Amino acid sequence: MKNKKLQGNVRDAAFSILWAVENKQAYSNLLLHQTIQSYGIADKNKGLLTEITYGTLQHQMTLDYYLEPYLKGKIEPWVKILLRMSLYQIVYLDRIPAHAAVHEAVEIAKRRGHGGVASVVNGVLRSIQRSGVRSFNTISDPYEKVAIETSHPVWMIKRWAEQFGLEKTREMALENNKTPSQTVRVNTVQTTPEEVIDMLESEGLDAVQSKLVPECLIVTNGQPAKTTTFEKGFITIQDESSMLPAYALQVGPNMEVLDMCAAPGGKTTHIAEKMENKGNLFAMDLHKHKIKLIEENAARLGHTVIETEVGDGKKSVERFGTGKFDRILVDAPCSGLGVIKRKPDIKYTKKEEDFARLQEIQLELLNQAAQLLKPDGIMVYSTCTVDSIENRGTAEQFLKDHPEMEKIQVSLPETLGLKNTGFVQVFPQDFGSDGFFIAAFRKKATA
Ligand SMILES: C[S@@+](CC[C@H](N)C(=O)[O-])C[C@H]1O[C@@H](n2cnc3c(N)ncnc32)[C@H](O)[C@@H]1O
């Protein structure tokens, strides 16, 4: 393939991202920002670029299923990517006329390859356009059918089906292919939701208060990260589910608090707000470059209560000693299966063998947290995944290993209306937010 980039061209930019995701294991969300800059994509076209890139990734296996009958013989990998993204536009984007998608595909094929490739691309796309896409009804295996229909690997569908049932799995997988909503958290130390709605409106954005978490606003139009309201520290960009751990922690002013896996600081800054910026809040993370992000966020929001610390949570007793904290959040590294809607490439890069290793790390971090906690102190374990082994499995194993700890009800905003059975698993389809897990523990006063 010739590496002929066409400045300002949305489809060429989308193609280059999809190529890098498939061949260089690049992350689509990071690459999208870089590509917008390097291609000089106009503001009015950024939405379309995002839609084509994420949409193609989200529906990749379905698109391959549609393409398969037309791809006789060997086809170069880059041509397949071009076909996928063009077919995505034809099948899923009503506002793009099919002839425009085919025309753009042919132009890219000519520029990056040659006339022969362009005529194959033209032929395949026009044939599918004429005959329509094939049905899923011929797939007899029920797991494979859901996997192809929703574009998730078969092992993932089987694993979820065993844990939650096939119907719930299908609902979740379909939800994962929707566009995520944009939510922001109001910095309640500085302002109120009503004031922020007015500020955002005066900058041309539309926002409404969420019915679930009181300090959460849903932005229905515009880019909140580009506003003065954001720059001045009145809001944080955060998914609504990620706002729940600070509630579960039952944290208040003048406490000694540790956020053990803190970067980039979304939850640290929320905890600081619940502490009314009074007390001591240590924000630890293993990676130095990520610590900088916490510091930038804290400075922007005006949170002076936060002290950052590069360190390994697995060695935090060495650092802090035992019985030091009133509250500890362990927002642990996890498989991230709850955020597929935002990072569709996770579906294809995760491997089932990653899971056992993750539970080991999670248990090591929780084991340290238990020792760091004061008697009667509360710790919260959270993940952004939907997997019973890492979630309930890790939480139950932790309780077995630590008789000095007891499970407590997860404290949540009442507006959420979640039936609280001790551990809370939010599914992506419950509220349209990320999939998330929360468990809360208290150290027995006699411990
Ligand atoms: C789920 S993310 C945390 C997100 C963060 N709490 C927020 O809300 O913005 C998990 C974090 O754990 C960090 N991490 C991984 N292993 C760690 C360890 N052994 N000790 C401390 N932090 C670790 C990663 O660098 C990553 O930033």
From TrEMBL:
It is found in: Cytoplasm. Keywords: Cytoplasm, Methyltransferase, RNA-binding, rRNA processing, S-adenosyl-L-methionine, Transferase. The keyword rRNA processing applies. It comes from the Bacteria. One of its GO terms (molecular function) is methyltransferase activity. The active site is at 384 (nucleophile). InterPro entries: MeTrfase_RsmB-F_NOP2_cat, MeTrfase_RsmB-F_NOP2_dom, NusB-like_sf, NusB_RsmB_TIM44, RCMT, rRNA_ssu_MeTfrase_B, RsmB-like_ferredoxin, RsmB/NOL1/NOP2-like_CS. It catalyses: cytidine(967) in 16S rRNA + S-adenosyl-L-methionine = 5-methylcytidine(967) in 16S rRNA + S-adenosyl-L-homocysteine + H(+). Pfam families: Methyltr_RsmB-F, NusB, RsmF-B_ferredox. S-adenosyl-L-methionine binds at residues 261-267, 285, 312, 331. Specifically methylates the cytosine at position 967 (m5C967) of 16S rRNA. Belongs to the class I-like SAM-binding methyltransferase superfamily. RsmB/NOP family. This is 16S rRNA (cytosine(967)-C(5))-methyltransferase.
